[in-house]
Amino acid sequence: MTPLTRFSSQGFFCMVQPDTFTTQANNFMTINIGILGANGRMGRVLIEATRQDEASTLQLALVRETSSLIGVDVGELAGIGAVGILACPFSDAQTDDVDVMIDFTLPDALSSNLTWCVDHKLPVVIGTTGLNQHQKQAIADAAQTIPVLCSANMSIGVNLLFNLARQAARVMGQHSDIEIWEAHHRFKKDAPSGTAVALGEVIAEQLGRNLSECAVYGREGDTGERDANTIGFATIRAGDIVGEHTVLFADIGERLELTHKASSRMTFASGAVKAAKWLAAQKVGLYDMQDALGLNSIQLLDRV
Ligand SMILES: NC(=O)c1ccc[n+]([C@@H]2O[C@H](COP(=O)([O-])OP(=O)(O)OC[C@H]3O[C@@H](n4cnc5c(N)ncnc54)[C@H](OP(=O)(O)O)[C@@H]3O)[C@@H](O)[C@H]2O)c1
After folding, report:
1. What is the atom index within ligand 1 of the atom nearest the CA of 66?
2. Mind listing the pLDDT tens digit for each residue in 52-96?
3. Cα(142)–Cα(272) distance, integer angstroms
4. What integer is the mean pLDDT of 136-142?
5. Is the CB of 64 within 6 Å of ligand 1?
6. Can you spell out the DSSP letters for 72-88?
């Protein structure tokens, strides 16, 4: 990590030592970003997102040790023309000038990616979904040593949706039927989406329920009447749908539907870059996108 000139809250410019994680987040510095899984769908869009963001620079683009893309300019991979950064295996990675990593890969890659980030003392933003309890624990363990931000969805709108769903659960949840449905492209490997599960967790927590006990993942055959305490999930996989989520609160006589539709992966990529810039200025610990966007401190509905 190179020393950076930062604008402190007192209005001073100061040099930050390379071996410390600082708490002085601001918009006056350029953050050097490294990408894990640079050749994936999200990896390629991230390459473009780092180029679009004036306060970030793409410094490292990692691919598998065995990848046939090693040595290819990743700007060409992303379809934006050469950017001077070549796809690189872990064994050749130069990390001295990297401030923060972004990981959008698959759960199988999580453990080795985390170990590598811990070994190199690099903060990491994790967007990979479909993680099991063991992998979530590995993230919590890594966050004892480095700053980690993990979120199943990096879009601002979805993170606002989490807040709205919590508020709706508070007002309508105890007496309405709650269903969550999501749609994604045909290539997505996990279901329901991490975002759908996270929405279910937020709502269950608000209602004092345990999602693992009240979730119903799909229905078929003679299901009987709906159990009022359940939270239902439905999944659609089709074509090139980028990502859609709806939370339904249905009572007799009225229903509320909260829907978010992403129309471009750039939404997630630019959110991840925003998160990376924020995370590079945080202390060791585990964070989520709500922290990076300052949404945790916003109470949309204080009194009902
Ligand atoms: N949080 C969010 O906002 C958000 C938004 C969109 C997607 N996602 C999630 O992000 C992840 C990636 O999505 P995607 O559409 O980009 O997937 P993708 O196109 O399949 O890309 C996956 C990437 O991970 C690499 N990879 C997979 N397994 C690996 C392993 N065992 N070791 C090393 N590298 C490995 C792949 O490398 P190879 O090509 O060499 O296999 C590829 O670069 C998914 O979990 C998806 O659900 C999250």
Report:
1. 40
2. 999 999 999 999 999 999 999 999 999 999 999 999 999 999 999
3. 19
4. 97
5. yes
6. SBHHHHHTS---S-BEE
- For residue 44, which atom of ligand 1 is closest to its CA? 16
- Residue 127 and residue 56 in one domain: yes
Cβ atoms of 194 and 152 within 8 Å: the answer is: yes
Mutate to test the pocket of ligand 1, among 101, 104, 149, 162 (most ligand atoms within 8 A of CB): 104
**What sign for the dihedral angle of Cα 14, 19, 25, 28?**
positive
- Closest alpha carbon to 114 in 136, 88, 96: 136
From the CA of 190, give the closest atom in ligand 1. Answer: 47
8, amino acid identity: S
Ligand 1 in reach of 89 Cβ (< 6 A): no
- 220: domain CATH number? 3.30.360.10
The verdict on the CB of residue 37 being under 6 Å from ligand 1 is yes
Catalytic residues: 184, 188
Q: How many CB atoms lie within 10 A of CB 68?
A: 10
The Cα–Cα gap between 164 and 172 comes to 12
CA 41 / ligand 1 centre spacing (Å): 7
Crossing angle for the helix pair 41-52 and 266-279, to the nearest 10 degrees? 60
Report the CATH number that the domain containing residue 32 is assigned in CATH: 3.40.50.720
| pTM of the predicted structure, to 2 decimals | 0.84
d(CA 42, CA 129): 12
Q: How far is the CA of 105 from the centre of ligand 1 (A)?
A: 3
Q: Report residue 14's pLDDT band, with 50, 70 and 90 as the boundaries.
A: very low
Q: Which structural domain range is residue 127 located in?
A: 4-154+266-293
Q: Indicate whether 251 pLDDT > 70.
A: yes
Per-residue pLDDT of 24-64, as tens digits, reads: 444 467 999 999 999 999 999 999 999 999 999 999 999 99
